[in-house]
Design brief:
The chain is an alpha+beta fold. A hairpin with an 8-residue loop joins strand 7 and strand 8.
């Protein structure tokens, strides 16, 4: 799955970034104020508790809940021989100040996950302060390129740490690599200075926001177009690209069509499909995806294949399901433990080929899925790095009508959807205020969490938006109409 387009819909209160491959949605990132990921941020933390039973420490970094730091993320890499004989207390004591980086956001009742092994990510290289190692991305498979980069980075490695060559380093010039290395060293020098003079808990360095992070990580290879529908955001992105990746600056532009960029590319429909439990397969079968706190289960079902044997039907369905499962895992940002229940097959060769198809499709996923293989019960286990919330957890809420077994769009998601629609529909309702009719929880969101976005939308439209409760409206629906009548104003804000 090579990303050839990045489409950015920047609206008040919510920015959506769609990564596309030949018109197909590969990944969707949703960013909202107040819900920002802290993964990648670097903090000066204070050790609150050292838990010898867990072989871990809880560290205060300024978040609502203390973060979790395991022994394996504290132990120096050179101390690998001590595994089993050392303890968390050998490295940390309560009250200690420690520089940590967030590996994973907090989830439900679990705090953020930390590491002491800081990694500063650039477009072509990653700087690993304190670790004097040189590594080359496995995606660089040319032996000459690997040897050249290894020698180059070994010459650049010093007491301040080592480097990892990313896949984009294979096509980078020496000057570009040297410039980025110098920049990453300056960043680390600033972090070290702040940590030496700071008092924990303190934020030492903030990871790039989602838009710029994606441009840093995806800016290369097949990418040919970056479309941004907001002029101010477009100017910010161009300025970043000119400084960090000049080759991308000319790709940044506006969509020339009359329809919104997501509508023109049929992304809204693809997003809706990515939130559905059932995904159809070309053969007539389907996969059913069920997220739970413990794991994500993917069940494969066959469709009828005229004239095919039971084994052939299972094999062909499973091949399609393996590829589609890998795509859906990335698109939905599913992580942790994943279990796929393929249709039973008798031939060992077929099972091997299904696993190969799954691994091949997952190879370009930045979440680094690891396919473990078939269990004795015929289930395929795999894991994927957990860094932030899944797409469904961001956009959806548990359904109150089915005791939490299903999901529906959250009131905040519907509120942002209504504000986007208001910009499109405003011209069809000339006059003064524009009324938005919706269910009570959505109106509550428009008057609460989305109030700032609503005010910005009013500013862009040059008219007020009146939020009106309609008890007969479905939870995920809304409607527009004249909002300046006496009744509407009485019912509104």
């Amino acid at each position: 799955m090579a990303v050839d387009e990045i489409l950015i819909n920047a609206q008040p209160g919510e920015t959506r970034i769609a990564l596309m491959d030949a018109g197909r949605l590969v990944e969707l990132v949703v960013s909202r104020p107040g819900q920002e990921s802290v993964a990648g941020n670097i903090y000066l933390g204070r050790v609150e508790r050292v838990m010898s039973g867990l072989q871990a420490a809880f560290v205060e970094i300024g978040l609502p809940r203390a973060a979790f730091l395991a022994l394996s993320e504290v132990r120096p890499l050179g101390a690998a021989g001590n595994i089993g004989g050392d303890s968390i207390g050998d490295y940390l004591a309560e009250g200690d100040a420690v520089v940590v980086q967030v590996q994973r956001d907090a989830f439900e009742d679990k705090g953020a996950k930390l590491t002491t092994r800081v990694a500063l990510i650039g477009r072509t290289v990653i700087h690993t302060p304190g670790l004097g190692e040189v590594k080359i991305s496995r995606r660089i498979d040319n032996p000459e390129s690997r040897a050249r980069l290894t020698e180059f980075l070994q010459n650049e490695t010093a007491d301040d740490g080592g480097f990892i060559a990313r896949a984009t380093a294979a096509n980078a010039g020496t000057d570009d690599l040297l410039t980025e290395i110098a920049g990453l060293r300056r960043v680390w020098s600033g972090i070290a200075e702040k940590s030496a003079s700071g008092r924990p808990p303190a934020l030492l360095w903030r990871e790039l926001d989602p838009v710029l992070r994606i441009l840093r990580d995806q800016g290369g290879g097949a990418l040919r177009r970056i479309v941004v529908d907001d002029a101010e955001e477009r100017a910010r992105i161009k300025a970043y690209c000119r400084n960090a990746s000049p080759g991308l600056a000319d790709m940044v532009g506006a969509d020339n069509g009359s329809d919104p960029v997501f509508a023109a590319a049929e992304i809204e429909e693809q997003i809706a499909n990515a939130l559905a439990a059932t995904v159809p397969l070309p053969s007539g079968g389907d996969i059913i995806i069920s997220e739970t706190p413990a794991l994500t289960a993917i069940d494969v079902n066959t469709g009828g294949r005229d004239g095919a044997s039971q084994e052939e039907t299972a094999y062909q369905t499973n091949l399609q399901a393996a590829r589609e499962a890998a795509r859906q895992i990335r698109l939905r940002n599913l992580s942790g433990l994943l279990v796929i229940d393929f249709v039973p097959m008798k031939r060992r060769r077929h099972g091997t080929e299904v696993l190969d198809a799954l691994r091949d499709e997952a190879a370009t996923d930045p979440g680094k899925p690891h396919v473990i293989g078939f269990t004795r019960l015929g289930l395929v286990e795999m894991t994927r790095r957990k860094k932030c919330h899944s797409l469904a957890n961001i956009i959806m809420d548990p359904c109150p009508a089915c005791a939490g077994t299903g999901r529906m769009k959250s009131p905040l998601s519907v509120a942002y959807q209504a504000l986007r629609a208001a910009e499109r529909e405003s011209a069809g309702w000339p006059g003064g205020a524009l009324g938005i009719w919706a269910a009570a929880p959505v109106i509550e969101a428009l008057n609460g969490e989305a109030a700032k976005a609503r005010a910005l939308t009013e500013e862009r439209l040059g008219r007020s938006l009146v939020a009106i409760v309609d008890e007969d409206m479905a939870a995920d629906a809304f409607a527009f109409g004249p909002g300046d009548s006496v009744d509407a104003m009485r019912a509104g804000q």
